[in-house]
Amino acid sequence: MKAIIPVAGMGARLRPHTHTQPKALVPIAGKAILGHIIENLQAAGITQFVLVVGYLGEKIMHYVQRKYPDLQVEFVVQQPREGLGHALWAARDTFQHEESVLIQLGDTIVDVDMQKVLTGDQTLLAVKPVKTPSLFGIAEMDNQGFITKVVEKPKIPKSNFALVGLYKIANPAKLVHSLEHIITNDIRTQNEYHLTDALMHMLQEGEKMVSLTVDHWFDCGRKDTLLQANATLLNRPEFKRAQYPEFPNTIIIPPVSFGKGVQISNSIVGPNVAIGESAILNYTIVRNSIIGGYAELGYAVLEDSLVGSDSSLKGLSQRLNIGDSTEIDFSN
């Protein structure tokens, strides 16, 4: 089966980190988001990939070619960028003649039994209950789990099951027909061509679709969910069993991910911290954070933070001789 991974978006919700790199290359748990997706799909038996690129697409291409030189991959450029439906329309020639195809969004980490997704002869949409369904594409189901309706960001949701960005399409030619329908008839939602609208047209044309509820889902296009995904991945067994290097006068509180060439001294690191290659930390306390490669931190206390690559943060170093009955407040 072939996997289509759209990675053309600008990642506006992750600025300023996406000013210089596409959001699919933002690191979590020691690896780019796209790296986690590719390796998870490879582990499930996927061997052919199509990446739909746009914003800073040359960086996506360079990353994949350098990191996965043997990967069987095609790149499709989406121009202009007019939504997920348009991205798949741009890539239609790469998958419309396949027997089935898998689609996974390039900023989505999903924890699911992938064999349940890949097996079966019906179109499958992965879903998860959410507290704010009006912010997502939503699926409505009948009592047997068959999907009866999908709608993008409904004002009055009739379901709280969000589409999580993982789709197994059993009839790619029908999907292309429905994509052609929404584009030819200029059917847009919030000024974009959405996959959700094409899926709804497929339902109206008689396509059977089933749902599968995933265990964990992280939309990594936002800081809070990015940090949650980082913590969840770091708490997997391979990180808990990891042997950490020795750093002078430093306490490591697992789980932590270290890139190559990291230098740390006089610090407390963890839990749930991912540090990129060649980063330098000195007199720093950091937890629940992602530190980019070649960043330099000194005299800093960080929690729930994203620090980009090549960044520098120097805090205050105080030396005090405090007498009796003294109060000092540096908080203002």
Commentary on this structure:
With 332 residues, this protein is of the alpha/beta class. The chain has 2 domains: 2-221, Alpha-Beta Complex (Spore Coat Polysaccharide Biosynthesis Protein SpsA, Chain A); 235-314, 3 Solenoid (UDP N-Acetylglucosamine Acyltransferase, domain 1), CATH 2.160.10. It contains 8 helices and 23 strands. The strands form 6 sheets. Strands 5-4-1-6-11-8-12 form a 7-stranded mixed beta sheet, sandwiched between helices. Strands 14, 16, 17, 19, 21 and 23 form a 6-stranded parallel beta sheet that branches. Helix 5 (172-184) crosses helix 6. The longest helix has 13 residues, at 172-184. The termini are far apart. The relative contact order is 0.12.
Write the layout of secondary structure elements.
Blueprint: E1 2-7, E2 27-28, E3 31-32, H1 33-43, E4 48-53, H2 57-67, E5 72-77, H3 84-90, E6 101-104, E7 108-111, H4 114-118, E8 123-129, E9 137-141, E10 147-152, E11 161-169, H5 172-184, H6 195-204, E12 209-213, E13 216-219, H7 223-234, H8 237-240, E14 251-252, E15 256-258, E16 263-265, E17 268-269, E18 273-275, E19 280-287, E20 289-291, E21 296-303, E22 306-307, E23 312-314
Parallel strand pairs: 1-4, 1-6, 4-5, 8-12, 14-17, 15-18, 16-19, 17-19, 18-20, 19-21, 20-22, 21-23
Antiparallel strand pairs: 2-3, 6-11, 7-13, 8-11, 9-10
